[in-house]
Amino acid sequence: MLKWIIGLAALALAGGAAAQTVDPAWHAREGDHVVKAYRFKDGETLPEVRLHYMTLGEPRRDAAGHVLNAVMILHGTGGTGQQFLAPQFAGVLYRPGGLLDPAKYFIILPDNIGHGKSSKPSDGLHMRFPKYDYDDMVALQHALLVDGLKVDRLRLILGTSMGCMHAFVWGETYPTFARALAPFACLPTALVGRNRLWRALSMQAIEQDPAWAGGEYRSEPLGGLRAARIVNVIAGSAPIQMQKDLPTRAAADARATAILNGAATATDANDYLYQLDASRDYDPSPALEAITAPVLWINSGDDFINPPELGIAQQLAPRIRKARFVLVPASAQTHGHGTHTWAAVWEQDLAWLMKETE
């Protein structure tokens, strides 16, 4: 049994901020899996749900055809699987000999329903799109793996933010599917307090903009989107990094202008409403004892969304039988809630998990 530890992650300087690129050595492929006649948890149905994905590397199968080396990495609210091509993540983990080197692992990067190139409200249904939640999202991930990619066992699920919450749902819903879970930047409890408040403020800002028109707008409701983006920026803020990156009043003001000017192109308003609201009934806390896979759970000390001073992780981690909880202290290397994607900060902890679950 793994020992539960509240400790300090090994800190190292992260790489540069080069543009996202796909190394030919990764053998990257993109595809779509269509789930027919999907029935959502609330009873709504769609004749087809399209799930887009990217894979890196090649599956390695045993004599019975089971994939042995599959790793699924799950993105956060508003993200896509391609965010894990960013240099601060891919440049650390996918490098030759790295912990998730595509020469060794078959890496699966889904776009969740409502995100990226997967089915979403902006495809045409707008607010008539079924009100999916995290259970639906995980069920569709499972369908993508089993029916689409013929993967019935995962070496690892690594999830960030919303993907972190999905990892806890996976651990309870499909306890033996993954050999290890790595949920980063979340809490396995209902989203209430400040975490629900910033989501509700963002949603209501859009819905109360007259231009939203009940979701049938001809152009994006810019006022609501700007207000929602302001809230999102603060929720995801990294105070030490912002102090370093915006050292003058002029720099901070210019960043504010860029943020507001980019609001209309950041996302579709209806898509964003669904993305935020999908967490409405998330709460794995009653069944944490059902998680049997080893868990490496990492949060950071400067995470506005999951503030460590609440003490929730310290209360809940002992209920997960094979969990190691790591609280990364705020430093010049952390990036607030976004520390989950800066792999150099927690690489050594992930190395520990992979070794423990060989």
Unreliable stretches (pLDDT < 50, length at least 5) are: 1-18
The secondary-structure element order is: EEEHEHEHEHHHHHHEHEH
- CATH H-level superfamily of the largest domain: Alpha/Beta hydrolase fold, catalytic domain
Measure the end-to-end span.
14 Å
Tell me about the largest β-sheet: 8 strands, mixed
Which CATH architecture of the largest domain? 3-Layer(aba) Sandwich
Percent helix range: 25-40%
Briefly, what CATH class of the largest domain?
A: Alpha Beta
Average pLDDT, rounded to a whole number, is: 93
User: Strand tally, please?
Assistant: 8
Q: State the helix count.
A: 11
What does the radius of gyration come to?
A: 20 Å
| Spatial shape | globular
Placed side by side, the strands forming the largest sheet appear as 1-2-4-3-5-6-7-8
What number of structural domains do the residues give? 2
Fraction in beta strands: 15-25%
Structural class: alpha/beta
Instruction: Return the CATH topology of the largest domain.
Output: Rossmann fold
